[in-house]
Amino acid sequence: MNTPDIKYLFEPRGVAVIGASATPGKIGYAIVDNIVSSGYKGGVYPINPKGGEILGRKAYSAVEEVPGEVDLAVIVVPAKFVFEAVETCAKKNVKFLSIITSGFSETGNIEGEKKIVNFAREHGMRVLGPNIFGTFSAKVSCNATFGPKEIRHGNVAIMTQSGALGIAMIGKTAVENIGLSAIISLGNKSDINESDLLEYLVGDEGTKVIMMYIEGVQDGERFVSALKKATRLKPVIVIKSGRSKRGAMAAASHTGSLAGADEVFEDIMRQCGVLRAESLQEALNWSKFIANTPLPIGENAAIITNGGGVGVMATDACEKYGIKMYDDTHELKRIFSPVTPDFGSTKNPIDLTGGATSAFYDSAIKAGLNSPNIHSVIALYCETATFDVENLPKVTKSNFKAFQAGKKPIVFSLLGGEKVENCIVDMKNENVPVFADVYEAVACLGTMYRYYNYLKTDVEHAEDVEIDVDAINKVVASAQADHRSFLLAHEGQIVMKAAGITLPQSKIAHHIEEAIKYAEEIGYPVVMKVVSRDILHKSDAGGVALDLVNKAEVIDAYQAIMHSCRQYDSKARIDGIEVCEMVRKGTELIVGARLDKSFGPTVMCGLGGVYVEVMKDVSFRAASLGRREAHAMIKDIKSYPLLLGVRGEKRKDVEGVVDTIIKLATIIRKCKNITDIEVNPLLAYDVGEGVKAVDVRVLITKK
Ligand code: ACO
After folding, report:
1. CATH number of 187's domain
2. Would you tell me how many other CB atoms lie within 10 Å of the CB of residue 702?
3. Exposure check for the chain: N or C terminus, fewer CB within 10 A?
4. Is the residue at 677 inside a domain?
């Protein structure tokens, strides 16, 4: 069955409300009221078994009776009647179902929800929700929600998994003077999810910024790919709740979907160029700022202030948010000395001092605007007796407009008493970016620069390296035939070899003579380890001997290992004893790849040994990554400087680590029955000397 174009969810030609009611106070009344009041020009069709008229519109007793096209049916009947309503929609060839009703997967009624979605998909319909407040689309001026009647139109699109929060956001955006191009409630995401909506919104001319509230991610692989495409065209701001473990549990029970591990989410969002906000207020600040401000054309920012203290605070904030302060002192002097009072400073921050008047303030801001070397301005103001504050609104508003026209971002932070507060309100009403708090102001510009820097990077596609998929699948299949969910050490090594990952030299001996022969071929010192599917913790069983330097020690170790392992587990099947090279010391890393519950194939890297357990100094990415992103992920580790060489050590072979990450990413993407690979430690040697995968654990799906 064909799936309908997502455009009809945002631009329906006719909307039916199944469960429309003439009783004020009912949700079925509010929705019809909102659609009619919002000025929607398409067909509005209340559906109610009693027929008659609802809010001046003819009510039909069934959707099939509607004469016009119905692209969207809003379903607002109790849960037990929803399936029946969906069946009638199929007869009418409805394209999208917006199911407001609660009482499905979020309360454990998973089967009821599945039945609806399966039926809908079989009949060419798509389902939004259930458990939602509805949809608003400015394009057709249609408020099919049961939220507030008044929605300010504009260029910010919001999608939200939480209904109540979404309704609150409608009110909040109106108060903050943020206009919306769309607001869509996703609820249980039984069918339509964020990726579907992104596909429409990236192409929608009316949307400049996309903001999402997410609790849990489904089909993360598709989401990553949709985000990567979207962020190249528009800024995407995300707030994800469930950062804390308790929060994640609350989110899981709230929406019926499991919230992904926050560290993984955070890193993958960065990989996708998403701007992640900590709080709702931050997300709203950023959305409004980006919606009203042009992207900068360069990275040099100037702080202009009449107060030294706030200038220092803004400088700290610039460092925190990665904003480059313009620091050519000669040029700064040339630009600003004509407009700076004698006691002021033309070093960035440009300090006009407490004696400055609005005329100085105005001229200094204009000097910043007119200089081709300055690309953005942070304008700070502290109330002083000498500053003619009545001129402040005029100065700030006119300069904001001039900066907008000049394609330069400007953000204000004003601090003072009632007159200043009034000025802030006045500026906010005209969408001039202004904050009482310096950090909030700088954070907005910092977010814009983060996006600016992201856009400067080239699009990087996933890199595939050649790996022997057949060899890997064969070893996995044989372990599955053995009803195992893991690979034995030597099988793990086959996987590494098939991907071209360097291992310490090793061979499996089946008797003492063979062990001696292999030790001599490899070269002393060697390590010996038991190979047994029944002994997972080899050291506990006395199954490991290190640093064996000659034939006599190999003979002793062979006998000792066999003896200890038999005592540990007399029934253990022993396949042999692995003789391996005693590896040189190197920097210990951990690298891995796994099928994440939310995001599908992902990779991980971090500093190995105790660091990984105690410091949790690891970073993650979606496995669809190339070399640049693999480098970025290594740089994300706090202990990265250790790889650059400390205390006179040489730089480590970072390229070798990148190669290993790319190879593991290729395995996890191509070999579907592998669920987890962990190389710990991966030893990184000096640059040019490569890396070695010393210990490898591979988990597989059990058959
Ligand atoms: N076709 C058309 N109309 C029907 C049908 C049908 N098959 N069956 C019943 N109706 C009519 C009813 O007769 C009634 O109309 P009336 O007022 O003229 O009698 C109307 O549909 C509504 O039915 P009610 O039984 O009155 O149901 P009610 O309005 O009390 O509740 C609702 C329905 C709102 C869907 C409820 O079951 C529900 O799920 N509420 C929760 C909604 C919600 O919170 N969703 C999440 C939002 S996000 C957030 O958290 C804010």
Report:
1. 3.40.50.261
2. 12
3. N
4. yes
Q: Which residues of 475-491 are buried (b: 16+ CB within 10 A; e: fewer)?
A: bbeebeeeebebbbbeb
pLDDT per residue as tens digits for the range 430-465: 999 999 999 999 999 999 999 999 999 998 888 889
**What percent of the residues of the chain are helix, what percent strand, and what percent coil, each to the nearest 5?**
40, 20, 35
The ligand 1 atom nearest the CA atom of 100: 45
Q: To test the ligand 1 pocket, which listed residue (17, 26, 66, 86) has its Cβ within 8 A of the most ligand atoms? A: 26
Measure 3 CA to ligand 1 centroid, in angstroms. Answer: 27
Question: Among residues 603, 610, 683, 652, which one has the least CA distance to residue 268?
Answer: 603
- Give the pair of three-digit tokens for residue 630: 């693999």
Q: HSE of 305 in the Cβ direction (CA atoms, 13 Å)?
A: 23
**508: Cβ contacts below 8 Å, ≥ 6 apart:** 490, 531, 575, 576, 577, 578, 579
CA–CA–CA angle 419, 422, 424 (5° rounding): 115
Minimal-distance CA residue to ligand 1 atom 17: 21
Smallest CA separation from ligand 1 atom 48, residue: 163
Count the domains in the chain. Answer: 5
Asked if 176 and 249 sit in the same domain, the reply is yes
pLDDT in tens, 112-160: 999 999 999 999 999 999 999 999 999 999 999 999 999 999 999 999 9
Q: Does the pLDDT value for residue 648 go beyond 90?
A: no
Residue with tokens 């590494």: 496
Closest Cα to atom 49 of ligand 1: 163
Among candidate residues 150, 145, 185, the one with its CA nearest the CA of residue 171? 150
Smallest CA separation from ligand 1 atom 45, residue:
131
- For atom 10 of ligand 1, which residue has the closest CA? 19
To which residue do tokens 């410091």 refer?
615
Domain span at 287: 152-292
**Same-domain pairing of 469 and 597:** yes
Which protein residues are within 6 Å of ligand 1, measured from CB?
Answer: 18-19, 21-23, 26-28, 47-50, 76-78, 81, 84-85, 100-103, 131-133, 163-164, 167
Residue 141 inside a domain? The answer is no
Q: Same domain, yes or no, for 450 and 485?
A: no
Residue 611 lies in a domain: yes
Predicted TM-score (pTM) of this structure: 0.90
Q: Give the model's pLDDT for residue 242.
A: 67
Closest approach atom of ligand 1 to CA 103: 39
Residue 134 Cα to ligand 1 midpoint, Å, equals 13
